[in-house]
Amino acid sequence: MLCKKLLLSFLLTLLVATPVAAEALKIGLNYPQTGRYKDQGLQQRLGAFLAVDEINKAGGIMGREVELVIRNTSGDPKKGAKNTAELIDREGVQMLFGGVSSAVAIASGRAARDRNRIYFGTLTYSNATTGAAGHSHMFREPYNAWMTAKVLSQYLKTQHSGDEYFYITADYTWGWSVEKSVRKFTNTNDTEAHQGVKTPFPRALITDFRHALEQAEQSGAKVLMMVLFGDDMVRALNVAYEMGLTKKMQVVVPNLTLGMARQVGPTIMEGIVGGSPWVWSVPYQYDYARGKEFVEAFSSRYEMRPSTAAASAYSIVYQYKNAVERAGTTDTRQIIRELEGHRYTFLKDEQYWRAFDHQNIQTVYVVRIKPRNQIMEDEYSADYFEIIDSMPGDEAAQTREEWEARRKEAGQPLTL
Q1: Could you tell me which residue ranges the Leucine-binding protein domain spans (predicted)?
Q2: DSSP code of 24?
Q3: Parallel, antiparallel, or unpaired for β 165-170 and 196-199?
């Protein structure tokens, strides 16, 4: 009997002394693994996993290991919203991020709001994401169409003043948003002088792009504004090159990413101009130490350079971590308060989450694709971008008055 009592006492002591592992902190990544934006989706996944691994090696978030739970949106808004609901209701994720199509991000963000979770837009450029469709639980990490148009117009007005433009635009919310913004800031609202055509989304065919490009050629325009993204831009640009248009017109791709440039290749891409919130050469050109650390860690791990999408996903995970640690809790309402107005320096110069619309305010860039020989000099044959112009975030972003005007037009309240 004495031996049994001693054994029981020993076992109880062990139970008290043995630390109980904290429950994992789950975050959900909702991105396209398939479809026309799959390359941008893959980059998000790679950036997110790198951030999670680094954070876990450093002790997690408030002592809790971070677990990344992923879902495939296939670029479908309904599927994005369904995934979001399942990630919260079944998996118990505390925060979600992702998106490439703005329609997917908007639908997913609404599903997150309905379940009191934050949704960070990782690659969503439509003004509506933090504008007409914005709400308290949506935070957008990259720039938007308005900011893209502002920085591009600054450059184009000096280089192509008086030239005619032709617009080829993906027929959905992002495309409409970008074209409207670029027309506004480049003074090309006259659609008779500066013509354009819409291409189907998400099922445009090569014949759709060829027909649009034939109209562009016939217009005699000097600037070809290709408001296309992902595989659509890749396919259209290949056709434009075959037709000789890249030599006749200045091709502008408003939202230009490394993945898209890499898919098209350096020969066809040379001289093309676009906008970007970040490219991997920025930290080296402006000497941002933390940005260089990220590029080198990503390049070493994956044997490729990171794109804007990878940087966005990586930054979001760290921003969430820091907000949780400042708040001392994962409570959504308190995290929102911690994010609003928060300023930080991470992969580039100072950025902040603007309180009234949850848009991330940051420096934006105009880039031009370098000649092939310069691109290939990089260890990973990926030195595509020459930074040719930039604009501070506060100058590029909508003012509060401009934002409120858009909200009124959409019948939305003037606060989130």
Answers
A1: 25-370
A2: P
A3: parallel
> In the numeric block, which tokens belong to residue 11?
């076992």
pTM, two decimals, is 0.92
The span from the CA of 286 to the CA of 282, in Å, is 6
**Which tokens in the block code for residue 213?**
């490009």
Contact 414, 404 (CB under 8 A): yes
Q: Return d(Cα 175, Cα 210) in angstroms, integer.
A: 18
Tell me the C-alpha to C-alpha distance, in Å, between residue 79 and each of 30, 32, 72, 74.
Answer: 10, 10, 8, 7
Partners of residue 285 on adjacent β-strands: none
Task: Copy the structure tokens of residue 389.
Answer: 């112009």
Distances (CA, A) of 385 to 2, 34, 292, 389: 78, 27, 16, 12
Q: Residue 75: name the closest of 40, 114, 43, 112 by CA.
A: 40
Hey, is 408 helix, strand or coil?
helix
Helices (H) and strands (E) in the chain, counts: 18, 15
The whole-angstrom separation of Cα 44 and Cα 41 is 5
Between 15 and 34, where is the model more confident? 34
Q: Is the pLDDT of residue 338 over 90?
A: yes
Q: How far apart are CA 365 and CA 299, in angstroms?
A: 22
Report the alpha-carbon distance of residue 126 to residue 1 in Å, rounded.
74
Residue 294 CB partners (closer than 8 Å, separation 6+): 50, 283, 306, 311, 314, 347
Which run of H or of E encompasses 386?
Answer: strand 385-391
Give pLDDT tens digits for 151-189.
Answer: 999 999 999 999 999 999 999 888 999 999 999 999 999
Q: Could you write out the three-class secondary structure of 240-303?
A: HHHCCHHHHCEEEEEECCHHHHHHHCHHHHCCCEEEECCCCCHHHHHCCHHHHHHHHHHHHHHC
Distance of CA 372 to the CA centre of its chain: 26
